[in-house]
Specification:
The protein is mainly beta. The protein has a domain of 235 residues: Jelly Rolls (Sandwich). The protein has 4 helices and 27 strands. Strands 6, 9, 10, 12, 17, 18, 19 and 23 form an 8-stranded antiparallel beta sheet that branches. It is globular. The two termini are 40 Å apart. The N terminus and C terminus are likely disordered. Bound molecules: 2-acetamido-2-deoxy-beta-D-glucopyranose (4 copies). The site of one 2-acetamido-2-deoxy-beta-D-glucopyranose (NAG) has 7 residues, from loops. One 2-acetamido-2-deoxy-beta-D-glucopyranose (NAG) binds next to loops.
Length: 453
């Protein structure tokens, strides 16, 4: 469901250069160019945040273009504060300071975190800054409700391995489970579990993931088991089984957006009603998240370790024997950095103002739902046509309807006026502010030439 990014939210830096074009797209067959080497979760190329969480080494310029991913940490997230949440335009990879990064409008309510989706927005997504390489994750959740409104609690890897719980807002007595190997679509992978009123009642949803099986639990009861041994693909001679480090992602997203593929809208229970009682009463659709607990897989030898600082891949086959648990650093000095030049933009490294090229540094295009969306034709990691509206590949990103030509305006121009205060000039970044909220169309540019003034 990747949609083309509209040339909006143009950020202006020092009035010298404007970047109004879409970032280049990327797929397995079309890797990113050298100047914008990192292929984001939304299958677009850039630097900075494009190289952090979600960066796909298989589709990036080189296998080391992406920044290494922080290893698993056992952790209980209370979700009663947003102190350790940052918008993706404020995070450079230090997972010791930030637990969640995201886009959209998370809110606190009664000691819980609400992920909201105001009218005509694309919702909200949060992802952990550390990765799980097998292990257990349990979350206390009340889903959203309403036709076309989807809540997701998933594990999502940079090479698009994925394990899902998803709620479609027309059926509050079912939670759908799913998994993907490297984003390859297989409609046979889904399975439904029964749940009692997912909207009004908290339930505990848990994924237990080992090299041999995935178990989906609701309130401590195993509802579904998928064994790796059932997933052999004789053609590719591989297990089509999720096996690589993955972030926990929670989201609310508009499956029923009019501009989505028909298959997606149908799967999501129909088109979204932006004048529903829910919207009238609260001003947004929302899903409620209580405590989320991550327990890393305990093992002494790969796969599944978390001894070092970071994970990276040493081969683009991106199977579990190609993941290295390493001591490589994970933090960029600025949004101009990439995996192969992590100190770029460092003030201390003073250089001369030579170049003035503009590249995208914050993946925009609204918000991720689940990585992969049932019911979308042509979905999948092979993404041969990563272009506009092709629905190639994961991300579940929708274009920002608030900024589209359909007339609704949600502060789309704000990014342009956001830029002039001279504050962030050390990282040369400007962009859609988080007050853009769900629209969060964060096209942000870095201009190398300004760095060294
Ligand atoms: C799961 O439930 C949904 C309705 O909530 C239904 O449309 C879908 O076909 C079911 N899937 C399976 C695999 O039973
Ligand atoms: C098996 O692997 C091939 C080659 O990678 C792929 O095209 C096919 O979709 C896979 N089959 C399934 C059921 O995933
Ligand atoms: C992952 O690693 C385990 C243990 O080394 C191995 O048995 C398994 O076949 C590998 N592949 C997958 C898909 O888990
Ligand atoms: C930049 O913003 C921070 C936080 O708002 C503020 O404390 C700081 O003084 C600002 N720096 C400049 C140079 O304006």
């Amino acid at each position: 469901m990747l949609r083309s990014l509209l040339p909006l939210g143009v950020a202006l830096l020092g009035a010298t250069s404007v970047l109004a074009v879409d970032p280049p797209s990327c797929s397995l067959d079309k890797k990113c160019p050298e100047e914008a080497p990192c292929c984001s979760q939304y299958n677009q190329c850039g630097v900075g945040a494009f190289c952090l969480g979600g960066c796909d080494p298989r589709m990036s310029f080189s296998i080391d273009s992406c920044v290494p991913a922080p290893v698993c940490k056992d952790k209980t997230y209370k979700m009663d504060s947003l102190d350790r949440y940052k918008h993706i335009s404020e995070y450079l990879g230090d997972s010791s300071k930030v637990d969640w990064v995201g886009q959209g409008e998370p809110l606190l309510y009664n000691g819980h975190t609400l992920l909201t989706m105001p009218p005509k927005s694309v919702g909200t997504v949060l992802a952990t800054t550390t990765y799980m390489w097998y292990g257990n994750v349990k979350a206390r959740i009340k889903s959203s409700r309403g036709a076309g409104v989807v809540t997701a609690f998933i594990l999502f890897g940079d090479v698009k391995d994925e394990i899902d719980f998803e709620w479609v807002g027309v059926d509050l007595n079912t939670v759908q489970t799913n998994y993907y190997f490297q984003g390859i679509t297989d409609y046979g992978n889904t399975g439904n579990l029964t749940v009692d009123d997912s909207y009004n009642k908290f339930h505990d949803y848990e994924i237990q993931w080992t090299p041999d099986e995935i178990r989906w639990l609701v309130d401590g009861k195993v509802g579904r088991v998928k064994k790796r041994s059932e997933t052999w693909n004789a053609t590719s001679q591989q297990w089509n089984f999720p096996q690589t480090p993955s972030r926990v992602q929670i989201s609310i997203w508009p499956g029923g957006l009019e501009t989505n593929a028909k298959g997606t809208i149908d799967w999501a229970g129909g088109k979204i009603d932006w004048n529903s009682d829910e919207i009238k009463k609260y001003g947004y659709y929302f899903a409620t998240f209580g405590e989320i607990k991550v327990e890393c897989w305990k093992t002494d030898k790969a796969p599944g370790t978390n001894k070092g600082i970071s994970y990276y891949y040493n081969d683009i086959s991106a199977t579990n024997n190609t993941v290295v648990d390493s001591n490589k650093p994970t933090i960029l000095k600025s949004f101009l950095g990439t995996g192969t030049n992590m100190n770029k933009g460092d003030k201390a490294q003073s250089g001369s103002a030579s170049q003035s090229s503009a590249v995208h540094a914050i993946p925009g295009g609204g918000v991720v739902g689940s990585g992969n969306t049932p019911g979308v034709d042509g979905n999948g990691g092979s993404g041969s046509s990563g272009g506009s509206g092709s629905g190639s590949s994961s991300g579940g990103a929708a274009s920002n309807p608030g900024c589209s030509s359909d007339g609704f305006v949600q502060n789309c121009g704000q990014a342009a006026t956001d830029g002039g205060d001279g504050n962030n000039s050390n990282n040369a970044v400007r962009g859609a502010d988080r007050t853009l909220g769900a629209s969060a169309f964060a096209v942000i540019i870095g201009i190398a030439g300004l760095l060294f003034l």
